[in-house]
Each structure stands twice: as C-alpha cells, then as structure tokens.
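Today's session is about reading a structure prediction critically. Students often jump straight to the picture, but the first step is always the sequence itself: look for stretches that repeat, for charged clusters, for runs of hydrophobic residues. Only then move on to the predicted structure, which in these notes is written as discrete structure tokens rather than atom positions. Here is the chain we will use throughout the hour.
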Amino acid sequence: MRKWTKYIKDLPIRWKITLWSSMFLFFLFLSYNLFQYIVIDNGILNYEKQNGIHQLNEVLAFIQSDDEPLSLKQIENSEGYLSEINEKNQLIRVLDRKGNIITSTSNDVSPNWQQPKTVKHQEYKVIRNHNERLLVLRAPIVTDNFTGTVEIIRNMEMSDVFMDKIFLLMLAAGVGSLIFSILGGTILAKKILSNVQALTLTMKKIKTNGLEERVPVNEKNDEFAQLGSLFNELMDSLEDSFLQQKQFVEDASHELRTPLAIIQGHLTLLNRWGKNDAAILDKSLKSSLKEVERLTNLVQELLELSRAENSLINPVDVEPINVWTTVQHVVRNFEVLY
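Below is the predicted structure for this chain, in token form.
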C-alpha cells in the first residue's frame, strides 16, 4: 500500500489530474447507476406487490361475499375461478385453519417452493428459493362458514431477468464511463497544464536566449492569463533592472577610468623626470591627491545612488559649483595625459 501511495505521489501533475478527475467522474457515475438500480428494483417490487395485493383482495372478495360467503364445499370447487384470475408465474391456494390445502392453482410455480402457513394478519415478504426470488402474500379468511388463509406466491423471474439486463446495461455504461472519464481527464489535464507548459518553455528560452522572451497570453481573462501577464511584467521589471545595472557599470567604469588614468599619468611623469623638479613634484602630488579625493567622492556618490534606488535615503539638495574652476582642472588633467 505504501509503495502504491509513493508511486501516486511521484506521478507528474498531468497524470495526477487525469487519475483523480477520472476516478471522481467514474465514482459519481457509479453512484448514480447504483442509486438508479435500487430505485428501479424497488419500483418493480412495489409493482409486483400491488399486483399481488389486487389478486389477494379479489380472492378474498370472492370467498367473503357480503351476500353469501362461500362454504367449504364451494371453496373446494372454486379451482376453475382461481385458474381464470391467476397470472403467469403465480400460485394461489386456500388453506383451512390447520394449514391444510383446500384448493390450489398454479402457473409455473411449484407448491414445494413454499410450505403452507396460516396467518391472523395480512403478510407480505420476499424470500429466496435457490435462484428464484418469490413474493409471498397471505391474508386471513374469516366467515360464518369458513376460517382459513389465502396464499399467493409470485415468482419474480421476469422481473429478475429484466433487472439482470438493466445490470448488464449499467455495467457496460460503467465501463464506457470509465473510458470516457480517462479520456476527459486527459483532455482536462492537457488543457489546464498547457499554460503551465508554455510558462516552463518560456523560462527555458530565457535561460538560453536571454531576458527578451515573454509568455504568450491568451485573450481570456482567466487565472492563467493573469499569471502569464504577471510573469511578463516581472520579466519587464527584471530586464529594466538588468539594463540599468549594465548602464550603471558602464558609467561607473567610465567615471573611474578618467581619474585613474590621470593619477597614472602623474606618477609616470614623476617616475621619468619630474621627481627631480620640485615644482612638477608638488603639482603632480596635488593633482594626484585631488583625483584621489575625486575617486573617494565618486565612490561615495555611487553608494548614495545605490541606496537612493533602493529608497534607503531621502533625496539630497544639489549644491552649485564653480564651472570655471572645474574647467581649469579638466584642462590641467588633459595636459598631463596628452
């Protein structure tokens, strides 16, 4: 049992949806067929019972006539009348108070299938005699001339044959429903997971081709369409962030390259011949320190810019600068470089 449970848990979602939806539809159809079978069987049984009660009342009315109830002798000679009203697969017999058979008529029902029995109240029951299902109805007879019991035994063979056909029909329908349930479950699983598979395929393309790939979104405003739209929005944000990061790295590299090149130029100048010239040495050192300070400020600005993008700091006021001083500083740097 644990092995099967683990096997089912390890199944792909597609097969799980197919399995559970098929089982649900099959058991739903099976329950409906079982309920329908019970209703039909009870309906046939009630029909047989009502028909038997009608026969029973007809025999009682014949014997217990209000004008002149039948005598024992007349009852013994009433087999012809009972044969006329008797139906196929039915036995009618009249018993005295001791259970002895006074008269009897049968149509394909053996008297040995049910032993005679006297009753004081009407009785209805269904019994089994080997493979036959019998409906037994009994009612007491009380007149001035006679006291006994009327028995009617109905063989429900035709009803059972009909119910067997109904059962075979429902069994075939059950097998068909199982097949169609599996087919419907497969189609349902494929329909549900098609969007998930499209999302998975898009992720694989993104892994191979880059962030430009997007999930195709259908025009229906269902949950999968909303999921696809949300995924595309997230990918748009991610692509924008990636491009901004790339641009940030390029700008930072460009900004850092210039002061580093200037410092390298001054150090190269000093290394060649400027270290013996006090004026050049002083000028180069001041320019290098200026560029180091610029590098420090640039790194600090980059850090503040990163924090500002993450909403970690409040916007700061921009202070005005002296443009002429900045231009002179740039000119001196280019003189050193070139």
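Discussion point for the tutorial: The chain has a mean pLDDT of 82.
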